[in-house]
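STRUCTURE:
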């Protein structure tokens, strides 16, 4: 999965006593794309890898159901829930009644769109302090920002994971499937379902220990978050209940957003310098002013 760099808008420092400062940071990840169109295209190609297979025959019958056929065969925009299919091309034998909703599950089409994404976050160059000087991190909310959404179906609740001490592969990417399967990331919350075509922000609802686990990850300054469609979640392709399934299609562009407050030690006992000194504060303040000027332009 793509290792996304995090944009950080560094706000003004708020001093709280002679030894600590509070650094507020607005974080939003770079955009990630959930491409269902591409996933369905791959699934359709797999179904007809063997053109004589039963799955390919079903797909061809569905493709021709609306009176037109494509090469290679594709799922129609409206999919019947039951279809009579002549599996042996023999008019002397009766057609076979096929439960298409069940076939979509059994053939692997639905599992193909159960995407998982992992995002690497590195804050070591974003906050002028080493992790040993960070006393605390607090945040109010974490939101999943649906910037664009052309998905043809309502998403289900998504599982939200976090992990630390995870190295990217040689391409700087993270394998979300492996991280979740191997237990290298821990579920910390749930992102509520988003209606088909809707944009906006969905707030993460944390588990009992979820906020504390995310706090620990943020304090480490390098961590990974992942999002997954639960394996037992049912994707509703028949929202109108008219026995016509909507073809899973479209894509969504999403990001994660949060406001963090880092409490950082500025002076160690005995007067020695901590991880965030006056120079760092000035540098960070200048960075904030520059960002504001650029935003104004």
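SEQUENCE:
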């Amino acid at each position: 999965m793509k290792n996304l760099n995090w944009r950080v808008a560094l706000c003004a420092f708020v001093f709280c006593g002679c030894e600590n400062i509070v650094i507020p940071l607005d974080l939003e990840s770079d955009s990630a794309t959930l491409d269902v169109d591409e996933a369905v295209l791959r699934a359709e190609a797999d179904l007809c890898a063997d053109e004589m297979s039963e799955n390919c025959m079903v797909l061809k019958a569905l493709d021709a159901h609306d009176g037109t056929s494509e090469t290679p065969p594709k799922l129609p925009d409206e999919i019947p829930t039951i279809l009579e299919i002549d599996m042996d091309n023999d008019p002397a034998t009766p057609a076979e009644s096929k439960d298409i909703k069940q076939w979509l599950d059994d053939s692997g089409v639905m599992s193909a769109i159960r995407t998982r994404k992992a995002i690497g976050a590195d804050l070591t160059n974003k906050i002028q302090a080493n992790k040993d000087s960070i006393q605390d991190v607090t945040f109010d909310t974490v939101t999943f920002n649906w910037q664009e959404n052309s998905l043809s179906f309502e998403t289900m609740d998504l599982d939200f994971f976090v992990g630390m001490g995870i190295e990217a592969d040689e391409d700087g990417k993270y394998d979300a499937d492996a991280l979740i399967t191997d237990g290298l990331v821990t579920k910390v919350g749930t992102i509520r379902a988003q209606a088909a075509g809707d944009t906006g922000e969905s707030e993460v609802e944390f588990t009992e220990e979820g906020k504390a686990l995310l706090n620990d990850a943020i304090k480490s300054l390098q961590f990974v978050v992942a999002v997954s469609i639960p394996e037992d979640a049912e994707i509703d392709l028949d929202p109108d209940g008219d026995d016509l399934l909507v073809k899973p299609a479209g894509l969504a562009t999403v990001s994660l957003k949060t406001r963090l407050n880092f409490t950082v030690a500025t002076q160690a006992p005995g007067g020695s310098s901590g991880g965030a000194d006056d120079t760092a504060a000035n540098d960070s303040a200048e960075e904030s002013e520059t960002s504001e000027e650029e935003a104004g332009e």
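REMARK: Confidence is low (pLDDT under 50) at residues 1-18, 268-296.
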